[in-house]
Prior knowledge:
alpha+beta, eleven-stranded mixed β-sheet, 26% helix, disordered N terminus, Piwi
Amino acid sequence: xxxxxxxxxxxxxxxxxxxxxxxxxxxxxxxxxxxxxxxxxxxxxxxxxxxxxxxxxxxxxxxxxxxxxxxxxxxxxxxxxxxxxxxxxxxxxxxxxxxxxxxxxxxxxxxxxxxxxxxxxxxxxxxxxxxxxxxxxxxxxxxxxxxxxxxxxxxxxxxxxxxxxxxxxxxxxxxxxxxxxxxxxxxxxxxxxxxxxxxxxxxxxxxxxxxxxxxxxxxxxxxxxxxxxxxxxxxxxxxxxxxxxxxxxxxxxxxxxxxxxxxxxxxxxxxxxxxxxxxxxxxxxxxxxxxxxxxxxxxxxxxxxxxxxxxxxxxxxxxxxxxxxxxxxxxxxxxxxxxxxxxxxxxxxxxxxxxxxxxxxxxxxxxxxxxxxxxxxxxxxxxxxxxxxxxxxxxxxxxxxxxxxxxxxxxxxxxxxxxxxxxxxxxxxxxxxxxxxxxxxxxxxxxxxxxxxxxxxxxxxxxxxxxxxxxxxxxxxxxxxxxxxxxxxxxxxxxxxxxxxxxxxxxxxxxxxxxxxxxxxxxxxxxxxxxxxxxxxxxxxxxxxxxxxxxxxxxxxxxxxxxxxxxxxxxxxxxxxxxxxxxxxxxxxxxxxxxxxxxxxxxxxxxxxxxxxxxxxxxxxxxxxxxxxxxxxxxxxxxxxxxxxxxxxxxxxxxxxxxxxxxxxxxxxxxxxxxxxxxxxxxxxxxxxxxxxxxxxxxxxxxxxxxxxxxxxxxxxxxxxxxxxxxxxxxxxxxxxxxxxxxxxxxxxxxxxxxxxxxxxxxxxxxxxxxxxxxxxxxxxxxxxxxxxxxxxxxxxxxxxxxxxxxxxxxxxxxxxxxxxxxxxxxxxxxxxxxxxxxxxxxxxxxxxxxxxxxxxxxxxxxxxxxxxxxxxxxxxxxxxxxxxxxxxxxxxxxxxxxxxxxxxxxxxxx
Length: 911
């Protein structure tokens, strides 16, 4: 088609001479706010110096110094491939170690007599090379029972076919093992790591040392959970109820530190299923009287993939399911020697699993006849056993979500006082006898048996202010409000009480709360109404109970809802009313509320309750003297905003539940004690926060950061923050680069999107609690004092990190928080930053003691946890993934969280 405007076009360009290569003009690109590929990648900052403030003190730590002699050799990395005789790859965990042990036992001379460390999957390491780069071995493994054993059985056969076939199939397995060279890692790379030169080689070399520790533990028959090892010894087990045991073990890993290479040894705990008869576990798990009361649909989900041993044959299998019929009714076909067809061949006969074992095998069955059979085969080729022949193998992890009671019991029974922990770790070091391991010896590794002595400092506690500029006196990281008012007490005018069938004297409770509140400066009017739950709704589903209570409530408040509701719940530990109640108040009506369980109420309990109530309603209980006087170094001199960031994931067994990302931010600068939160849902099990910056059409950004920046601006006298300090929780060292280059980029882009000319300076700090370094007072049974800071010897050789115990450890052994400063444009000195972190552990409004991690991080965790209860995500995941017949590619879309009501979105509702 001709162009109607062709006469308006310019003449064609002149012809290009054949010897001229034209330059290609690149099309002008519009800036892509999400494309960071052209930006230089940020790297972790180096330590600018160490701190000097505070009282110097010597501690001991659970790091054991490691000598390293062989620095000239190489670790050789080999890839392992396992195949069955027919060429099919071997699947299933656990079998690899048995096969490799057999290879070493059979072909030690062909392997040059070299010891190896195997990771249990596809990697094997040696010190020095094997004789050849590619080696293939064939081994015969006796009595291997894996997924393939069941495949040999006939359809429905309880023993995988008749006895003869069963015997033949379980006697042995022939396997092929391919070992091929992959890489060599210089042992010297560990020396580079100790000098702070973190390369891929140095990380790999340290990983090899850790795999050697795993190999040692595997040879001892331990359960391996990453770098934690658990022995099969009843003295390590503690009953948590419900067929679940807590299992004590130890963590052991090599760390590159300023003081050289060290072995970090610590206690560790996991949960395992109770070994023994399978039926006993199911009965305990469901808390029922006998197997005839069991919910078998629920039991099927619980026991799937657990390993059992059959008592009649001593063979191991993995549970794949249950039979559809009872043992006495579940039929299968088998060949009968006594019954032959017209051609003289054995005929297939139908008989029940019960008849097979009782009549054919001559086994006695006491209670299995009326119970389902255990299936260890495949759906189309089942292999059934009566349940009473099934015994659970020991040391199997229990990966389902624990109940509140089980979790509390695990925490309580895992606690160890400092002195007890030191004794246990000393004994563990002796019993491990790492010095005798041939592979560690061939590396030239020697490990000292004494705890390492290190230098630290005790920081002075920050000064706190109560109401009327009164000073709060701190002692051992704690303070009280005796005869003092809150720094900024709230006013409670229009309020009500709702009682979900909790037993208490509501009138006395209200009077006591008002009495104590008045002493703290909170003015309480009498509650306008008290609502008792109607008897006919007490057994209704929780959302219905909440709706009906609100129907009562709104009939009394037809024009204006109450500003505050005190909610009395019947169960403190596990109340399913909590989530629907919070959602109704915070999302739909914008009402501040406080839940409580009035079982053991005294003045101390009500004092703690009032701390939360005052903070939620906009008050402040205490303030740092430095923020009042505006003399906190760096932070008070320029408008400074503080972020706390965390992601909360679904509990074990709920892998498809969306994760909840929460960011809290400071407001009302120069204060650093007041915060608000912004919360979003995101894809399940994703740790990186993807909703910080979300540009849309026009000048719209629906991300988390924008609303927090605007709130800081309006609450801080229309000032933009020129400094932003970010505390990020819940990420491991392997994710530091993503936090530094992806999350920080999103925050910067959110700032630029608001104002292109605005460039605040950033400091980014990761706070870790999930580590294994502990500190002890040498020769004392007490925990280290609050304010303990360590930034030498056991810290990273070059990166900017430090440990802090801001709190007083009252129970068990204090766990320090490990702070990693990834990025610092603001330019903090080591002392100023450590004192700021220490101070931020004293601004947590929910308690009158210093906490173990900076308050913004704890608040982010609270906000994510509370908002995650707004919606029943288990119902969501069912509707989004298994209903409607939609077959889209990729995971189902994440359901958005209900928004917080405008009345409460800027508050500390999470307190």
